[in-house]
Structure formats: C-alpha cells, structure tokens
C-alpha cells in the first residue's frame, strides 16, 4: 500500500507542477489576440549548453501561463462544448497588405441609391402560360424552352419577307450581351479614371453627343482632301480637341527627350555667352561698315573746309557797304576775266 500511495502522490505532484509556473516577473497578456509577452531575462548558461531543450521548456511554460489566464475568464457551454468569451483586443497587429478600398459603385447602383431602390431576390423559376410548365430564368433549360415555344416566328409588316427571323433574333441577343459587356467595362474604366477611346463607339445608347461629333469629324477627314470638300450636316458643330485624331492637322510636334548631360551642356553654353567679357565680332559686318564710313567722313570734311560767304554778304548789305572783291569767285557770263581795264 505504501508503494501505491507514493506513486499516487508523485503523480499528483507532477500534475500540479505541470500547470504551475513560477516567474520573477509576471507576463504581459492580451487575451483578445491570445498574446503573452515574457520580459524575464534568459538563462545564458542553459541556452548555451542545450539551446533546443531550453527554448522548448520556456515556450511550454509561457503557453501554460496563457492558458491559465484564459481559464480564468467566464465560460459557457454551447452544443456540449465549453466556450470562453475573449475580451476585446488591446494590441494592434500590423497588416501585411494595405486595407482594401471599397468597391466603387456602378451607374445603376448609384441611381438605385439615389432613388432608394432596394434589390430584391427573384425566383429562379417562372410559369410559362404557353408551355404550361415552370421554366428557369437562365441556363440551358431556358434556351431549350425558348426553342420549344418559338418554333415559328411572325414576319413583321415592315421587315424584309426574305429575312431569316431566327437569325435576326439570335443576332439581337448577341448584340445585347455585347452592349452589357461594353457598359460594364466603361463603368470599370470610369471608376478607375482610365481614358477610353472616343472614336469607334457610336451607338446612341452608350455614346454621348460629344462622341458622335468626334466620330463625324474624324470620318469626314478620312478622304483624300481631308474633308475640305465634304458637305456638313445642318446645325453641325465642329468637335474640339480632335487634332490628334484628324490626319494632317496642324499641331506642334513634341520635342524628343533630352538627356541630363545635353541639358547641362546647353545651359553652360548660355551662361558662358552671357558672362563672357569679350563680345563676339562679326568681321564681315565690321569691314562693310568701315568701307561705308570712309566716303561719308570725307564728304563731311570737304563741306567743313568751304567758307560760308552767304552770311557775310547779307551783313554788308545791311550796313550799306559793298562787299570786297573776291578773286576766287566765278566771273559773270559775257565778260572776260583777267588783265587791266583800258581807259
């Protein structure tokens, strides 16, 4: 009996030891995120001697302390399972990726939100009066029911009697699907601020008046004369901002990209030309100016060397005196010059 009692006591001590952990400093807990932070210093000697065993025991002790704290919380039983309600988290975990942005609303969703239209769940089946049975709203059974119901089609009065009405109906269905897909892509492009081509989409249901004006202007310029001799529609307006789409339009060409070295050399040349002390001399222009200035200076010197006698004569006449004879003057006609007069 003593042996059995010793074994039971030992097992009880081992069980108590397995759930009891002693630490110099208490751990910091955040039960909302199941986090426990151990700030105690490590035993360097045990870590060096046997690293794996020391880290394994340390992790086991910390997990045991975290579980002890969890079991202190209020519990409840749900479907034969014991459940613990965790408190709100305190520690903010960093995200590996940015927070996802809300999905942009489509045109219909914006309109429904503005008008207060709520989406209701439709039934998957509808009663067909002609076939007298339930027909699904979509799927291959729907197409089979349509072929069974529309085995003959009436030709409209305005349509061509030789036109295949089955082919016309099939083409219309394909066009509707393409239109819906195009509208879906346009909504995605609009939500992401992506520019879509303005030419090529001329359907009145999906295109605006500006798109139609652009298409007309580009189509008119597709002739040999670039639309110069094409007649305009009544009250037609010219589209704006279509120079890139119209061939042969006058527009400035974009200069090619310049490297940093070329731009630096160009700027240094400008600075040198501005700050240089010696101005640049055009030798041909200077020689032409010098040749032209010589006869001008000579004519000015000749005009200065001639005496001005007109002013002197006028002064002598005012005083009543005759002007003195001047041998340098030109003689009058009919008289011989030189020699003494005879008496």
TrEMBL record:
Extent of Basic and acidic residues compositional bias: 229-241, 294-304
Chain spans, region Disordered: 229-264, 289-343
GO biological processes: endonucleolytic cleavage in ITS1 to separate SSU-rRNA from 5.8S rRNA and LSU-rRNA from tricistronic rRNA transcript (SSU-rRNA, 5.8S rRNA, LSU-rRNA); ribosomal large subunit biogenesis
Composition bias type Basic residues, residue spans: 307-322, 330-343
Transmembrane segments: none
Alphabetized UniProt keyword annotations: Nucleus, Ribosome biogenesis
Primary subcellular site in the record, as a coarse category: nucleus
Database matches in PANTHER family: RIBOSOME BIOGENESIS REGULATORY PROTEIN, RIBOSOME BIOGENESIS REGULATORY PROTEIN HOMOLOG
Similarity annotation: Belongs to the RRS1 family.
Name of this protein: Ribosome biogenesis regulatory protein
The organism of origin for this protein: Aquatica leii
Organism taxonomic ancestry: Eukaryota, Metazoa, Ecdysozoa, Arthropoda, Hexapoda
């Amino acid at each position: 009996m003593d042996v059995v009692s010793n074994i039971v006591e030992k097992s009880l001590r081992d069980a108590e030891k397995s759930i009891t952990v002693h630490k110099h400093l208490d751990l910091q807990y955040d039960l909302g995120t199941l986090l426990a932070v151990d700030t105690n210093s490590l035993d360097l000697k045990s870590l060096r001697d046997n690293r794996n065993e020391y880290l394994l025991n340390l992790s086991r002790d910390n997990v045991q302390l975290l579980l002890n704290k969890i079991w202190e919380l209020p519990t409840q039983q749900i479907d034969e399972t014991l459940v613990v309600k965790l408190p709100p988290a305190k520690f903010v975990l960093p995200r590996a990726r940015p927070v996802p942005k809300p999905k942009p609303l489509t045109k219909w969703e914006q309109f429904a939100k503005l008008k207060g239209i709520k989406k209701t769940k439709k039934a998957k089946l509808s009663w067909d009066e002609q076939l007298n049975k339930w027909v699904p709203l979509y799927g291959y059974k729907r197409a089979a029911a349509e072929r069974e119901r529309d085995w003959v089609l009436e030709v409209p009065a305005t349509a061509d009697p030789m036109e295949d009405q089955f082919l016309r109906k099939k083409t219309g269905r394909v066009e509707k699907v393409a239109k819906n897909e195009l509208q879906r892509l346009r909504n995605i492009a609009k939500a992401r601020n992506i520019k879509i081509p303005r030419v090529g989409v001329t359907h009145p249901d999906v295109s605006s008046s500006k798109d139609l004006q652009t298409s007309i202007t580009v189509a008119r310029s597709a002739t040999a004369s670039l639309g110069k001799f094409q007649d305009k529609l009544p009250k037609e307006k010219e589209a704006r901002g279509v120079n890139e789409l119209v061939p042969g339009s006058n527009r400035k060409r974009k200069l090619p990209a310049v490297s940093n070295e070329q731009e630096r050399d160009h700027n240094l040349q400008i600075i040198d030309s501005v700050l240089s002390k010696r101005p640049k001399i055009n030798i041909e222009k200077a020689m032409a100016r010098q040749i032209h200035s010589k006869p001008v200076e000579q004519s000015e010197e000749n005009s200065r060397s001639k005496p001005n006698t007109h002013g002197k004569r006028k002064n002598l006449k005012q005083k009543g005196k005759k002007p003195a004879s001047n041998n340098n003057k030109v003689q009058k006609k009919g008289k011989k010059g030189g020699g003494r007069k005879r008496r």
